[in-house]
Fold this protein.
Amino acid sequence: MESQNILCSNQPLLLSPDECEIIIFDVETTGLSNTDEIVQISAISLHESIFNSYIIPSVSMSKGASIVTGVSVIDGDLFLNEERLEASSAADAVNLFIQYIKTFEKQEILLAHNGNRFDTPRLLKLVKEVGKLDEFCEYVTGFADSLPIFRKVLLERTETALIYDAVHLFAMALHVLDTSQQIDVKPLSCDSTDTWDHGYSLINYMKNVEMTGLTGTIKFDNQGFRSDFTLEIMELNTKNGLEEIGSWNSSFGINFTRSFREVYTQMIDSLQNKSFIVTTILSAPYCMWKESSKRLAGNAQFEGYSIDLIHEISKILGFNYTIQLVPDGLYGSLNRETREWDGMIKELLDQKADLAIADLTITYDREQAVDFTMPFMNLVFQRKVPSNAALLLRQKVRNEPSSRLQPAKEYRRQPTTSPGKRHRRQPTTPSS
């Protein structure tokens, strides 16, 4: 492996796999600017030796970083969603990382995806700030970035296959031309207007020749454009890496080969360890402030049917979430004059939230703006007009499987007998 030792030398190093230990690392930060701080250092070797350490930052987490990582800073403590993390100072985290690196006997190469632009400079900055750069240099030979390697390998394979097919096609057309007529060879000058007598014939043969090459069927139309070729549609997922999910043909278009069950299963798998913002509204018994003698933060501040429901769904599907109350305290209505929404619908459309859960009636206007799941509760008023409540998704998605939730039983909170607690109002009918 060729690697640039950016710490101790400006000369390229040539190391064999037996001479170095590749350690894949990643850092999470409070934001994307150069002044943001690292909150997590994680690494894994090719032999699956794992390192992970959280750092208490001196600055607050940006909203975007919290959404992506699920990490937040509350009263000087680090939280991953609702769970408090054991975090250390920056100096202690760097010391632990160096101790981890010392366990390997070979020269270490630290590898990160997009490391040259993000992970590497931020890690080096932190190591230098805590005064451990010299000790770090003793064990780390250099850094590598997997992003350009990934791009180069794919590009080289594609270009090589296309060149091979082009040369093969030219040779076949020239052979057909040679068998059909006498080919005369004469010298030509690039500055002359003279042309090769068989040039147009060779081009026509190349258009008419059909063959199967490394890139599939090679065939051209009358204008010289490649036709009737097929492209594989690949998808990158965290479970199987690059996976073929269909094909595209210049004559018939897209053909997805996955079944509905496979698509649905992959959608469920794709939610694993993702972090979402869930918007809701205070409305007993669906969402209420939780009364406690202790100071509560994050999702622990709320209780109610909706809170319990989203919590159970997250456990089944394996995603993380942060509950946020809608700022204007409204469910969501369309202004007919301005054509703008307010309330939770606006939060979804503005992409300030990923999901909404509340006692929200499903109406025609709302269904045109956002996607609903199946209602989790159906009620009928005395005048026999049905009302319902459901989860909302952020945007309209056509022809995709949706989460199916069975109608829930009536939710009843246990009455409290603790002295000094105020009585809450009785559960109300879901409304908008």
Observations:
- Residues 371 and 393 are 5 Å apart (CA to CA).
- The radius of gyration is 31 Å.
- The first strand starts at residue 2 and ends at 4.
